[in-house]
Amino acid sequence: MSEAAENTRLLHLEPLGDATGYASQMHTLIERSPLFENFNLAEIRLMSHFMQVFRAEPGIEIIREGDAGDFMMLLIDGRIEVFKQDRWNAPRLIAMLDPGKTVGEMSMIDGGPRFATCVAAERAIVAVLRREALARIILEQPILGAKILMELVMMLSQRLRQTSARLVAYMDREEERDN
Amino acid sequence: MSEAAENTRLLHLEPLGDATGYASQMHTLIERSPLFENFNLAEIRLMSHFMQVFRAEPGIEIIREGDAGDFMMLLIDGRIEVFKQDRWNAPRLIAMLDPGKTVGEMSMIDGGPRFATCVAAERAIVAVLRREALARIILEQPILGAKILMELVMMLSQRLRQTSARLVAYMDREEERDN
Description:
Order of helices and strands of chain A: HEHHEEEEEEHEEHH
Distance between the termini of chain A: 43 Å
Largest interface: A-B, 33 and 33 residues
Shape of chain A: globular
Structural class of chain A: alpha+beta
CATH superfamily of chain A: Jelly Rolls
Oligomer: homodimer
Number of strands of chain A: 9
Number of helices of chain A: 6
């Protein structure tokens, strides 16, 4: 599915304008946010100019597994359920996000398919950062841009270490069974 | 083990100075380099000022699994064998690197333990980029710094997608067996 389809989905959300009015609230959340925990209020304020805020009613699907995507989002208020299809294509709850958590970084970065589906479990407020906005930050605010990229690199590196360790453990177990 | 230990290991390599004299050669390799394939000659030249070149004789260990690390390297000439310990702590060959390939990005980024051991399979020339040099690039050459970070983010994102897909496949197989 195209990014246009994902943008169409965002039309089901109520747009609340850019994120500047939410900068203080976002800053109170960042200690719970692995991605933004090292950002100070001035940096959050600066970044908020490049983000849009949306409200999602309960049950609304914000991101759909398999779609191409071009944004990440920070959950400001409410809760989001994350589902991944199992091998019978049935949705399986794999995570529950609370305020401060971010989701969708990988597709923002590479435009690749969404790994999972995100549904508002209760009325949710999210701040969206699109890839083209990140590109503008890098050009217009290079120091902030480098900081965001550095945090993304650190986060991905950490996740890759965890995922690789789990994969190696599964491979070992399978081999043990086969011997 | 400390980063100091890893730096001690680099002392077993012959230092050949900074990488400026190797910029053209590095540029001829980049089409084989997932990390640097989008860099033009001017960018490689600029980056080469921040990299050091070393020669490793055959059999010399350049990176040791489990060590803390603070650099990545680009293989300019020769071949490098990559070993990972299996569960009996025996080294298992998991990859063979040829010129243009990079290795060590994750530890450069987060200072965490090396995932595998790298040994020169034949006389090898490597260009090393340390974390502190990347930090200087970001400050002194922010556009180049953002480009390097963006490429790192893309590479990690791609690897994370591949590793996650393999992990999900193993988890599915295991569940199928248990049912």
